[in-house]
Amino acid sequence: MPPEKTVSQAPGTLDPKRWHALFFIALAQLMVVLDGTIVNIALPTAQADLGISDGNRQWVITAYALAFGGLLLFGGRVSDLWGRRRAFIIGLIGFALASALGGAAQNEAMLYVSRALQGVFGALLAPAALSLLTVLFSNGKERAKAFGVFGAISGAGAAIGLLLGGALTDYLDWRWTFYVNIPFAVVAAIGAVLYITEPENARNRSTLDIPGAVLASLGLVALVYGFARAEHEDWTEPLTVTMFVTAAVLLAAFVLVEARVKSPLLPLRVITDRNRGGAYAALGLAIIGMFGLFLFMTYYLQVVRGYSPVRTGVSFLPMVAGMIIGSTQIGARLVTRVSPRALMAPGFAVASLGMLMLTQLSLDTSYVAVILPAQVLLGLGMGTAFMPAMSLATERVKPTDAGVAGAMVNVSQQVGGAIGTALLNTIAAGATTAYLTDNAAGATDEQLLAFSAMVHGYTTAIWWAFFIVLGSAVISALLINSKGSSRDAGASGDDADDAAHVPVMVH
C-alpha cells in the first residue's frame, strides 16, 4: 500500500504543489470519463473477435456500470478513511492492471472480469480525485480555476472517448481502447507520488460503517441493474420490477441506518443541504439527457449518415470545444463574481436550446447549419453549468467528508447515465416501432422506411432529453440559493463550525 503523505499546515496555508497536482488529478479523471464511451465504439469489433453473442454483449458495459455505480459511496468513504492520495494511487494502479487484462482478453469471461475490476478501482479513484481537488483548493478564485478544468474534462471526456475509440479501433485494434488507459494511469500515479500531498486535518479517523456500506452498495447495484435490464428487456418484466423494488427497500434502509449510526458512510447533512442536494439533482438530470444524446447522435451519424467511427468522433469536437470554453472561460471566470444559480440555470437553459435544435433532425439534416451550432450550444451551456455545480456539490462540507461528497457527484452522474440510456432508448425504440407500423403499408423503399423510423425514434427521445435538461435549469433556479463568494470556500455554516474543531495532527 502506498505510504501516507500528509502535510500539517496552518489554516489558510496553500499547498505550493497544488497546480502540479491538478494536472495529474485531471489526467486521472480524463481516463475514467473516457472509459465510459471509448469501449462502446470498440464493442462491435470486440464482440466479433471474441465470439460474444448479441444477448451477452451488454455485459461488457453492464459489468463496469454495476461495479462502478454500486461501490462509489464505499469508495468515497474509504478515501476519507485511508487518505485520498493513497486511495488515488491504488485506484490508478488497479485500473491500469484491469485495463491490461481487458486488452489481453482471450474470451468473453476475461473481458467481463476486466470491466468489473475497472469499475471497482474506478469507484475508488473517481471520488478520491474530486475530493483531493476539494481539499487542495480552498481559495475561492483558485478553486474556480481548478473546478473549471475538472468540469471541462468531466463534460467533454465522453465525447473525446468517442473520437479516441473510433481512431484506435479503425487504425490499430479494439484492444487499444483498453491499453490506452495504462500510460494515463502510470503518468498520473507517478505525478501523485511526486506532487500530491494531503492536509492532515482532512483525514477522517472514524470507523467504517459496514452496514451502511453493504446496504448502499447492494441498493445502487440493484438500481443500476434495473435500468440496464429495462433497456434490453421491458420495464414491467418481473426481474426488472424486482430490482427496482429491491433497490428502493435497500436504499430506504440505508437512509434509516445512516440517521442512527455514530460514523455514517454518508452523513445525511451532505445531501440534505439545499444547495448540495440541488447540485446533485441538476447534474443527474443533465447527465440523463446527455447520455441519451451521445447514443442517438452516434447511431444517427454512423448508421443513417454513413459516417466512419473516426469522422463521428470528429463531429463531436465542437461540443468538446464548447464545454472547455464554457467551463474554463465562462464558468471559472464568473463564479467568484455571481451566484452559482446565475451560471447553472442559464447554462442548462442554453444546453436545452441545443437539444431543441436537434429535435429537427431528418435524413439529410445539414451538419453545418443544424448539428454544429446545436453542439456548440450544448457544450457552452453544459460547460458553464457543470463547473459551478461540481464546485457547489463539494463545497462547505467538512474536510473529513470530502471523499463521500465527491462520491455523490459520481453517483448522480452514474445513476443519471443508467437512467438516460435505459429510459431514452426505450422511448426511441417505441417511437421507431410505432412509425414502422403506421407507415409500412405504403412504403416502397424498405431501407428508406427503416432510416426514417430510426430518425423519428431519435428525435422523439431527444424531445424528452430537451425537457429533462430544461428540468436541470428549473431545479437550479428554484433550489440553489448560495450567494457564491471569492473568499475561501472550505466550509461555512454548520459544517464550518464542526470543521473548525478537526484537530491538526503534527508528526
Structure notes:
The chain is mainly alpha-helical and 507 residues long. It has 2 domains: 16-208 and 265-497, Growth Hormone, Chain: A (Up-down Bundle); 209-264. 76% of the residues lie in helices and 1% in strands. It is built from 18 helices and 2 strands. The protein has helices spanning 18-50, 58-82, 84-103, 108-136, 140-171, 176-179, 181-195, 210-232, 238-258, 269-272, 274-304, 309-315, 317-334, 340-358, 367-393, 402-439, 446-479, 493-499; strands at residues 6-7, 198-199. It has a two-stranded parallel sheet. α2 packs parallel to α4 (108-136), α5 (140-171) runs antiparallel to α13 and α11 (274-304) packs across α16 (402-439). The two termini are 20 Å apart. Mean pLDDT is 81; it is low at 6-12 and 485-507.
What sequence of helices (H) and strands (E) makes up the elements?
Answer: EHHHHHHHEHHHHHHHHHHH
Which stretches of 5+ consecutive residues score pLDDT under 50?
A: 6-12, 485-507
Q: For the record, what CATH class of the largest domain applies? A: Mainly Alpha
Task: Look at the helices and sheets and give the structural class.
Answer: mainly alpha
Quaternary organisation of the protein chains: single chain
Kindly give the count of domains: 2
Estimate what percentage of residues fall within beta strands: under 5%
Tally of helical runs: 18
Named CATH architecture of the largest domain: Up-down Bundle
Shape verdict: globular
Assign a percent range to the helix content: over 70%
Tell how many strands the DSSP assignment holds: 2
